[in-house]
Records
---
Amino acid sequence: MDFSKILSQVLEMAKDATTNGLIKGNTKNDQIAKVGGAAAALGLISMLFGRKGGSGLAKLGSLSALGSLAYQAYKKYQEQNGTASTLSQNEFAEIDSHAASKVILQAMIAAAAADGAITEDEKAAIVAQVSQDTEILDWMNQEMNNPASVEDIARQVGNDQALATQVYLAARAVCTNLVRKEIIFLANLAKALGLPDGLVEQLEKDAGF
């Protein structure tokens, strides 16, 4: 599967759904289910993210935009602490897009599921749209039914702090209401990723949370 393409589509559709006012508290399944297939399934997932993330996701219209936002926050954090940036902007822009996109998607789905808000009806609607695409179906089923743990996400990220900031930022964008379970999930994610509190605060500030 082309996870880079999938993430780009999901972010773009979530952004469009949010900025165009399609999300009013419930996913509008009928509006995109007509498309059918994997495209509709991605649309349903995007609208789920948009419903939960709202305006936060409007800032993350692409992987490059996510990387740029994360870099600017990282740079400010380093400057405020009187240290030179140890990571360049290229390191944020030139991450392995396939591997990065996969773990970012996993983090977003895990964040969406943190408060149990992915309902059985939403799962069924998404699965119904990809019933003919077994590869995507299997992956989506796995992630929705058994969301990646913060430890698993952190293992995939490894010591790549540029990727870690983007993973956290993407997950945070899905959790704008911050109910207790989401707060716990995000705190555990930041800890697992090894992100300093000050950097987390700067990421959230720059993203407008």
Note: The first helix runs from residue 3 to 19.
---
Amino acid sequence: MRFTRAGLGLWLALGAVGASISCAHVHLESQGVAVHRLGAQELPECSRVGTARVQVLAKVLFVPRSGRRVDDELTTLARNAAGNMGGDTIVAEGPVHKGKQTFGVFQCPDR
């Protein structure tokens, strides 16, 4: 199979995008394992510990990433941050916007 210079460039660019997307994964750290995500209406009597502002790439080379994957990675980052702050619960304080989201971090009894 023969490629023109432009065709080869396109395949290399597509390969780079695929590699970038597959490598952009956030891992749950040990301190985030015990942190749970709840909705605002689900919070029992908890005390606020702080705020976690997290962000991930929303696009890779002008290609939007999956909304579910972005949400999962933001939640993972917020859980890690909450664990570092001594919290055990996170609650989203707004929607995802351009790969960014803010979470309230709480310490709840009986968790």
Note: The chain has a mean pLDDT of 86.
